[in-house]
Amino acid sequence: MNNHQTPPRDHRWAAALVGVVAGAVALGIGQLAAGLLTPEASPVIVVGDAAVDATPAALKEWAISTFGSSDKPVLITGIVVVLALIGAGLGLLARRRPRYAVAGLAAFGAVGVLAALTRPDAGPLDALPSVAGAGAGAWALTLLTRRAWPSLTRRARPSAPAEPSGDLATDQGPSPMAVMRAGGEPYEFDRRGLLTGVVAGVVVAGAGGLAGSGLAGRRSVDTARAGVALPRPATPARPLPAGADLRIRGLSPFVTPNRDFYRVDTALVLPQVDPRTWTLKIHGMVDRPVELTFADLLKRPLTEADVTLTCVSNDVGGPYIGNARWLGARLADVLREAGIRSGADMLLSTSSDGWTCGTPVDVVMDGRDALLAVAMNGEVLPVAHGFPVRQVVPGLYGYVSATKWVTDIKVTRFDQDEAYWTPRGWAPKGPIKTESRIDLPGDGTTVRAGRTTVAGVAWAQHRGVDAVEVRVDRGAWRQARLAETPGPDTWRQWVYDWDAAPGAHTIEVRATDATGYTQTPDSAPPAPDGATGWHSITVQVK
Ligand SMILES: Nc1nc2c(c(=O)[nH]1)N[C@H]1C(S)=C(S)[C@@H](COP(=O)(O)O)O[C@H]1N2
Ligand SMILES: [Mo]
């Protein structure tokens, strides 16, 4: 015998709505608990981060190339849609199999607990938001289902009034309203009960979510960041040569303002690292393990350097490159104090959110300005760019050098350790390739006939750019005029005056670095170790 009631197929929308609202209550209460207890363990964020980590690399690349920098909003929207669909499903289930629906919510709570507890630096408290959220969701689901279908409660009783079951029959008894309706339709639907319940649920979810986020935000590191006083550099950067920036409209400025600087990382929500509790551990194949505080770092003699950062995912002509003046402690000095043991060839650095990066020891130790950076363009490091401390190593793509929110450096060997992107199809080592980009005119634009400025940037970090050539319609290569640079670690602006004749034209660019190497025309995709090929644009001249 089955004493579960089977409501008619109508009002499915109501059941789905109940499920969605119960899911929202779960998330809102989860967020509130996180805000009160453990801001890093918000269920949506820990599950989202875990989902990002579990996503196949190919799908992630597809998402980045399809959605660009809006990949995160798209991902969050996707998570919300999936959760809403699951909530709707649980709502439908709750009418017939309430215990299964509650079990479904519990399973979700368990996923949240697992995601929260497997994060680096997780504590037992981190389990609570997911538990609280799942509990609140189950409660809301049961309550709302009862409100919408009071007869479900009533009809579950007649044969066995005292049945101790975990489903909807465990109510205190039929409500007056249900009694009044006892002679009505077998599965009456209480629209008003549903709507008032839904409104209450939405209010609880919204208030919980907002309050939770606010509480978490109050603990944010912004205040701490605002209080950091930057020391003067012991070794200031060489003053920028007067001609480093050609100041051409539409050309990337020599210094990329922090707000325009590209951002690439795996963090769904920016890690909020408190500089007062931050430490950097240096351990592994060293004679004396070191642990530095932020204050320790600021007491060291700091070096300032102009360095152009580049992402390995940058397509030919792409935007993932920027140049800044960094201030930081020399990584080589810190490592020398720890004493690197012979045989070590890799620095495996880890961020506060568990991302890892493998940097060759010899590159960091060869005298270049490899920094534990605390400032960017004269400003305390922005949170998005790694506050309080990040690595900057001239000449290496960001994925093998530029760890943001760095908290740990293990001195090790490439044959013993692997960094985050390596098993995902990217090369263990990533020296930046000699490349160049046309910034203006824009690809596909129309320009007036006559003297036209073609300009862009070229880079070959730590080697330096020696020449840039431009050709039109596959004609002869012409030398572009180069801007000055402070050194080999930055990009270099270039400009070419073109006498544009009416018609459609193709413009190509190629750079030659200081080793004499000229950019290959062979086009290669970003994976596994950086795109190659000549940037090419077409313009209409009128
Ligand atoms: N913690 C952390 N650091 C990171 C990454 C990351 O995903 N997590 N991405 C790296 C990559 S791939 C690049 S290109 C640079 C980008 O630095 P930016 O965001 O400051 O431009 O950061 C590097 N540092
Ligand atoms: Mo990158």
Structure characteristics:
Immunoglobulin-like; single chain; 3 domains; 542 residues; binds molybdenum atom; Sulfite Oxidase, Chain A, domain 2; five-stranded mixed β-sheet; binds ligand MTE; alpha+beta; five-stranded antiparallel β-sheet
Listed once per kind, the bound small molecules are: ligand MTE, molybdenum atom
Proportion of strand residues: 15-25%
Rg, Å, rounded: 30 Å
**Widest sheet, order of strands:** 2-1-10-5-6
The averaged pLDDT comes out at 89
What overall form do the CA principal axes indicate? globular
Low-confidence stretches: 156-186
Polypeptide structure, described:
α1 (12-37) crosses α4 (71-96), α1 packs antiparallel against α6 and α6 (128-148) runs antiparallel to α9 (191-218). By secondary structure, the protein is of the alpha+beta class. The chain has 3 domains: 9-218, no CATH class; 258-424, Oxidoreductase, molybdopterin-binding domain (Sulfite Oxidase, Chain A, domain 2); 435-541, Sandwich (Immunoglobulin-like). The chain has 13 helices and 19 strands. The protein has helices at residues 12-37, 43-54, 57-67, 71-96, 98-117, 128-148, 150-155, 176-180, 191-218, 222-226, 294-299, 331-338, 361-365; strands at residues 279-284, 290-293, 302-310, 321-330, 346-351, 356-360, 371-376, 379-380, 390-392, 406-412, 435-440, 446-447, 450-459, 465-472, 478-479, 481-482, 492-500, 503-513, 535-541. The strands form 4 sheets. Strands 2-1-10-5-6 form a 5-stranded mixed sheet. Bound molecules: the ligand Nc1nc2c(c(=O)[nH]1)N[C@H]1C(S)=C(S)[C@@H](COP(=O)(O)O)O[C@H]1N2 and molybdenum atom (MO). Molybdenum atom (MO) binds next to loops. The ligand Nc1nc2c(c(=O)[nH]1)N[C@H]1C(S)=C(S)[C@@H](COP(=O)(O)O)O[C@H]1N2 binds at residues 261-266, 309, 311, 351, 355, 385, 398-399, 402-405.
